[in-house]
């Protein structure tokens, strides 16, 4: 993906997603319910992402979303859209869950490891500052921020209603 972004000089963003307080689901309801929540979460995210995005489980309750041809101006509002979709979803047994997201955008010369590290810093900051939000790691300033961006149209999702 990075090689393609370099060759085509196209933007690339990644989003790390983490289900908030997931350990409590396993502890209170058992791993079977935890597995149901993970599957429901993954299916929900798959419904709202564009077909050209790559989505998968990263480990535990963390997921990785690779967003080709997506700049930071598009990635953070899209991450916030995912966050609100999760918050309003009715999950099995536990009903309501939230998630925290870390967003990072590729800059020429970065490795995938560096990009992942930046997204992880955004995710960590989202968790540390109250959860249920998306935070963007700004490589230029070396800080995490919640961008105040103009409203942009969200990338077209996989579902028919465009939600």
Automatic annotation (TrEMBL):
Pfam families: GGDEF. CDD domains: GGDEF. Residues 10-139 form the GGDEF domain. GO terms for cellular component: plasma membrane. One of its GO terms (biological process) is cell adhesion involved in single-species biofilm formation. GO terms for molecular function: diguanylate cyclase activity. PANTHER family: DIGUANYLATE CYCLASE DGCM-RELATED (PTHR45138:SF9), REGULATORY COMPONENTS OF SENSORY TRANSDUCTION SYSTEM (PTHR45138). This is Diguanylate cyclase. It comes from Schinkia azotoformans LMG 9581.
């Amino acid at each position: 993906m990075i090689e393609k972004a370099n060759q085509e000089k196209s933007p690339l963003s990644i989003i790390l997603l983490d289900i908030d307080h997931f350990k409590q689901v396993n502890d209170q309801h058992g791993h079977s319910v935890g597995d149901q929540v993970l599957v429901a979460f993954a299916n929900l995210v798959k419904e709202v992402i564009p077909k050209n995005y790559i989505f998968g489980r990263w480990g535990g309750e963390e997921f990785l979303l690779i967003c080709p041809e997506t700049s930071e101006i598009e990635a953070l509002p899209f991450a916030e859209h995912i966050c609100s979709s999760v918050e309003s979803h009715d999950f099995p047994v536990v009903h309501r869950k939230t998630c925290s997201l870390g967003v990072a955008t590729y800059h020429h010369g970065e490795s995938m490891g560096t990009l992942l590290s930046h997204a992880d810093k955004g995710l960590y900051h989202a968790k540390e500052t109250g959860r249920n939000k998306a935070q963007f790691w700004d490589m230029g300033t070396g800080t995490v921020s919640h961008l105040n961006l103009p409203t942009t149209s969200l990338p077209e999702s996989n579902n028919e209603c465009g939600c």
